[in-house]
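Review session, final week

We close the course with one last complete record, chosen because it touches almost every idea we covered. It is Putative secreted protein, a protein from Anopheles triannulatus with 235 residues. Go through it on your own first, then we will talk.
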Amino acid sequence: CDGSPMSSESSESNEYEGSGILTVIRKQCKSNTRSNAAFSVVMESLEDAFMCISNFDAENFVIDFKQLTNATRGTFFTKYCPKVRSLISCPDGIVVAVRPCLKESARNIVQAFYDSIPEALNLACKNDGEIIFKLTDQKWQDCFMRKADQMWACYNTLQSILNGDWENSQLTPERCSILKNFGQCLKDQLDACDLSDIIGFYDIPMNAVLPLTSCANYTQEPTVHLLDNNTIVET
């Protein structure tokens, strides 16, 4: 390495090759800004976020959660919900730093998703964590497992149609319909377990994000139904 800016930039760009999402972000930063400087800011903000989150006492949280009972959940959620809420601001710097690396539509989606997190946390903390506590009960876990195949059918349909692509040009009416109805597909199964409230964790970010995509243009969408043989049909 000769210490030149070009050499330094080349070394920096190679550092994250093959690192999954970091590789994607680095390439987008380079494409949008024509340098690696923006990606360096993203990495610095990522380190700051981890430092911020490290202040949370995760070890005692896990210990207390494993000992959670109906009698103690009021104390547990009263103690930890404010602490978790304080962590929501930890990634603020990342959201700001990544903006130059994204297209305008993607920036708005990222911001909307991020802004929906407090509402999702409020749902988790509602009624002394009623929804979360249900998930720890063996009765509900057994029911959940009995519905696993049907829920996987919902998920596989979503995965096969979207294929991880959130570009507006790829959000066809069919794909938007599946996105909008995925929660209902799961809810149909979880109603039997009295667990359908957890669908709120999907609906909250989707309700924030979808109006910012081309899905907002499609007012006529079919309703998804799951048949007994675990196949999806639309009506």
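Two points worth writing down before the exam:
The radius of gyration is 21 Å.
The CA atoms of residues 47 and 94 lie 9 Å apart.
Good luck, everyone.
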